[in-house]
Design goal:
Elements lengths: L1 E6 L3 H11 L8 E7 L15 E3 L10 E5 L4 H13 L7 E2 L4 E2 L3 E3 L4 E2 L4 E2 L3 E3 L4 E2 L4 E2 L4 E2 L4 E2 L4 E2 L4 E2 L4 E2 L4 E2 L4 E2 L4 E2 L4 E2 L8 E3 L4 E2 L2
Parallel strand pairs: 1-2, 1-4, 2-3, 5-8, 6-9, 7-10, 8-11, 9-12, 10-13, 11-14, 12-15, 13-16, 14-17, 15-18, 16-19, 17-20, 18-21, 20-22
Antiparallel strand pairs: 22-23
């Protein structure tokens, strides 16, 4: 049986812990051992059976270890997880049992698909992507590696997200639009035109902001 560690003991880490316990593989194929966080007191004041067992920077992965990333901040997430990967870490792909995943869906290593997400068909999700609660991902969508899709977003047919894209809660993207690498779309926005690499947009319709 593998040892599974949650990378990050903040709010999202606590949510991921609860969702891991819902998984049918829990205590069968792997057992949650606790959290890794450079703030060793991150769970002080919270009532959890498992605590922070080590700092991320000091932990040395073994062949019996699995990791699930529970860090929301994009730059920090990538820096931390790439450091662990360089030390030999293998990341677990978490698909919550309530998620609906249709046919011909490719899901990369370390993806986290949260409760009540719907991924329809012929979709490609790159490594280390996070799809938060109640997202919908339509047919022929591509989501690039390291992207974060926040709760209740709607990616309609043929939408293309580049790498390291951030979508705030409740974003809607109309069919066929492209959001390029490193772009940020603010919460509640409606994307009706393509978004350039590194661009920050917000509103309905989404427009560039500083």
């Amino acid at each position: 049986m593998k040892n599974l560690y949650i990378v990050g003991a903040g709010g999202f880490g606590r949510e991921v812990y609860a969702w891991l316990l819902d998984s049918p593989e829990c205590n069968v194929e792997w057992r949650v051992q606790g959290f890794l966080d450079d703030n060793l007191g991150a769970l002080d004041g919270f009532d959890y059976e498992l605590g922070v067992v080590a700092s991320i920077s000091d932990f040395q992965p073994s062949s019996d270890d699995l990791f699930v990333c529970a860090i929301g901040a994009r730059a920090h997430k990538r820096r931390v997880c790439e450091s662990l990967k360089a030390r030999g870490a293998s990341f677990f792909t978490l698909v919550h049992p309530t998620a609906i995943v249709g046919p011909n869906v490719s899901i990369g290593e370390g993806v986290v698909i949260c409760p009540r997400v719907t991924v329809t068909c012929d979709v490609e999700i790159g490594e280390m992507v996070m799809l938060n609660l109640h997202c919908t991902v339509g047919h022929d969508v591509r989501v690039g590696a390291w992207s974060t899709v926040s709760a209740q977003c709607d990616l309609t047919g043929f939408v293309q997200l580049g790498e390291d894209v951030f979508l705030g809660s409740g974003v809607r993207v109309i069919p066929g639009k492209r959001i390029e690498d490193g772009a940020v779309v603010g919460a509640g926005s409606v994307v009706i035109r393509n978004v350039r690499a590194g661009q920050k947009v917000f509103g309905n319709p989404a427009r560039e902001f500083a």
